[in-house]
Amino acid sequence: MNDITLGGCSPTPLASYLKALGILRLLSAHHPKTRAAWRNESLLLQTPLTREQMEQFFLHDYQPTPIMAPWNGGSGFYEKDDKDALIAILQNDTGRLDSYRKCLQLAEQALTDMNRSVSPKDEEKTLLLIRMRGLLPDEALSWLDAAVLLTGEKPDYPPLLGTGGNDGRLDFTNNFMQHIVKVLCLTGKNTEAESRGWLHLALYGDTAPGLINKKIGQFSPGQAGGPNATTGFDADATINPWDFVLMIEGALPFAAAAVRRNADDPYGVLSYPFTVKTVGAGSGSLGVGDTANARGELWMPLWDQPANYAEIRALLSEGRIALGRKPARDALDFVRAIHHLGSYRGIRSFQRYGLLMRSGKAYLATPLERIEVTNKPRTNLLDDLDQGWLMKYRRFAQDETAAHHFQALRQRLENAFFDFSGKESSSTETQAILALLGEIQSALASSSKAREAVDPLPRLSDHWIPAADDHTPAFRIARALAGLRSNDKFPFPLRAQLFPVHPRSPNKWIDAANNIGNVRIYTGTAGNLPHLLRNLLDRRLWLAEKLEMNDKPLLSYSGATLDDIAAFLQDDRMDQRIATLLPGLSLCKIPEEDDRTGGNGPVSAAFALLKLCLTPDSILRSLNALGQKEHLPLPAGMLAKLYSGHKSGRAVEAAWRRLHASGLNPVFSYNTLPTLEGISAQRAAAALLIPLRYGAYGKLVSRVLKKTSEEAGSPAA
């Protein structure tokens, strides 16, 4: 076997990819042991032929596939068509064209008694296609099946070959015949030396005689010509005749299958190999107009281990990747599915093409990006969004009546799927996705129209938390807040305060009044972080009283350290990060934290007194600071005094009185109470909502409460 690198065959443009398949297909028909693989952006052939023998095969032995489209205007079969190439083939008696001549004659037979002044339309076209399928021999059906899918009441057309073998006014089949005439030197206008030069260029990328001025259609945007196509203002479309011939031959393995992807799928479409609906994500080069007018996307498989044509043909004939039980419907499904599968059938990567409307109404197969396939199946964190929610949101946001910010959020979300499917995202990247999901939930919550169309985001798994953890104070504080809960029979998750969702069913919006049992839970996300945290705290404490809860609803599955609280009280540098993370983290299941260490941060003694007054009784009891049947009520007016700012000293005094009256004797006498000097009263009030680790509560108790029941100083009258 000889290894021959075809430097003229690369994965891009699409014309070059198809050309590589055409070479493999044609050689394998005569030499079945021929194998091919993609290496270093070229096709590596393993074949019993030498280079010279391979060239001789194409120049002297190659028998063109009977490619024709008598159902299309411009195909050579109608009065105003260019018929020169068709006549040249019919009049040539070389044996390599026997099958082609026979099929052209059958096409003429099928067109008997039809009006040749114009190509057929609608029902007449369908009847002609059915007639052609019944007349043509097997060697011609591969082209018909690749170009047209006969099913139901009218034909359907695989996007790869335009609309049944043409793109606008450009008929691929007539052009194929014209290039066959040139490369096989049928009319004497071209020499074998010219054809050999073109073949060297097609196979190896060598220099060759000048290209000819002909259109290549959608397959190679760089050769389409037009404005700014080269130096100067304009350029003609140019092509290597062998490129076109081999490209069309290489399109034949992509025969369509007359099946629905999913019978229960309202978006079910006819199934074409590795062809899906276009998504304006991933490459960063697609706009809303691109996706709206696109014919679809082609995901061309690249494999790096030698495979024979039968294996590649089987791969392409199946060509329907599924996301779980659901076949991939669009590019977003496709990119997720291939990473779930791991190395799919030996494929190393996919070259993604978008069939996009560009110059006028012409379509171009635009290379978008290369998608690498992971070696092992991976589950992406974003898979939590499946369960139908993703489809509903994307459908809503794609509607032309949807607000622009919903469309922008959709595109950012789709880009996230492309960016992070199949890879381990960093904590920074994971946090960015969480922040995006929080934005989407907030946008949905603020629109009654959106809430009618789309459910709240599903609850995200606890796998998000370690993936997003960057071990910073801001993250620990945001995680602690997101884990807020109640130990009472009434559930009180933070997400029900940030968004109008049902406290027991996070996938369900609550009614317009945002009430549960005539009690308003929803607080919203308005205001800066200190303002937001104070509002959340007030609502939780008010609900505890209104619903006669047994304890303060300020427990959490996670907690901050004293160092974190000290940093928060010092300044506002982490406020923005906490505010950005909090909505997204509130959507997650917060795991129970194992680390109970409290840290050694220099937290103000005055703040410690305030914080202990808002510490849940269950924690104080476990620390033996409060008796098992005892209760620490909220100090009357403490928060109001703290919010006023200038009365913060009186707030500390209220806390001291409450602790003293409940038997939690502070180490300070009434006359030596500490102050919040140097700390903003507003920040102190906000920090009272932040849950602490168990060890941090323990350190506050040991720092500001007496270990014995010795008498503390009495307050002045």
Would you mind describing this structure in some detail?
With 717 residues, this protein is α+β, with helices and mostly antiparallel strands. The chain has five domains: 2-61; 84-251, no CATH class; 257-378, no CATH class; 389-465, no CATH class; 475-704, no CATH class. The chain has 28 helices and 20 strands. A four-stranded antiparallel β-sheet has the order 1-3-2-12. Helix 23 crosses helix 28. The longest helix has 19 residues, at 427-445. Mean pLDDT is 87; it is low at 225-235, 258-269 and 709-717.
Which key terms come to mind for this protein?
single chain; 4-stranded antiparallel beta sheet; 717 residues; 28 helices; alpha+beta; disordered C terminus; 11% strand
- Percentage of helical residues? 40-55%
How many domain modules? Answer: 5
Structural class: alpha+beta
The total count of strands amounts to: 20
Termini separation comes to 105 Å
Task: Give the topology, please.
Blueprint: E1 2-6, H1 14-30, E2 35-39, E3 42-47, H2 51-61, H3 84-91, H4 98-110, H5 122-135, H6 138-147, E4 149-151, E5 154-156, E6 166-167, E7 170-171, H7 172-183, H8 192-204, H9 241-251, E8 257-260, E9 270-271, E10 275-276, H10 288-293, E11 296-303, E12 307-308, H11 309-318, E13 322-323, E14 326-327, H12 331-341, E15 347-357, E16 363-372, H13 389-398, H14 404-420, H15 427-445, H16 448-453, H17 464-468, H18 473-482, E17 484-485, H19 495-498, E18 515-516, E19 519-520, H20 529-546, E20 555-556, H21 562-570, H22 575-586, H23 605-613, H24 617-622, H25 638-643, H26 648-661, H27 681-687, H28 694-704
